[in-house]
Amino acid sequence: MSTPRRIAVIIGSLRKASFSRKAALAMKSVAPPELDLQVTEIGDLALYNEELDENPEATPQPWTRFRDVLRSSDGFLIFTPEYNRSLPGVLKNAIDVGSRPGGKSSWAGGKPAGVVSVTPYNNGAMSANHALRQCMVYLDVPVMQQPEMYVSNAGKSFGDNGEFTSDDTKKLFTKFIGAYAAWVEKLAK
User: Among 127, 123, 119, 126, which residue's Cα sits nearest to residue 81?
Assistant: First the structure.
């Protein structure tokens, strides 16, 4: 068996029991062995300030760590809640930190991404998903187009530790991560 592809899992919520985190843990449980899903924390990333990149010695260590993770990954899975019909500020900040300094984006390289948007409500999550896709297109990160993944009623979909509460949700996640694994391999060739 070949070495699994290292996938940076970025969770756009800081809450330890967030639905986005539970969805990411659930996704890990059904990931095929050819993917090594590694949660990459973003809560310690200071708000982006270009002045901190002007002097490499002033660059915050968490920024360097995050950028190194992005560079060393074979792809990205991003889980986002929807805040006010868009992505949360903490996730946008992580995207900005990874894209800087100018001309040295850690997102660069055509690595495949998958986007999962999560909401506790019946409707929603589509706006955050598409706002995130817009950012990734600009950063030249090819995002898997189909299947799209919008998770509604997330409070009923996962247990406390990210376990699935229904077979239908598990099947949906299994289908998505299988398609993502194929997307990763397609772009690796």
Answer: 119
Task: Report domain 5-188's class.
Answer: alpha beta
In this structure, what are the phi and psi dihedrals at residue 163, rounded to the nearest 5 degrees? -75, 150
* pLDDT tens digits, 79-127: 999 999 999 999 999 999 999 998 999 999 999 999 999 999 988 789 9
pTM score: 0.95
C-alpha dihedral (82, 83, 87, 92), degrees to nearest 10:
-140
- DSSP letter assigned to residue 39: E
Place of tokens 């060393």: 72
DSSP letters of 139-183?
TT-PBP-SS-EEE-SHHHHB-TTS-BS-HHHHHHHHHHHHHHHHH
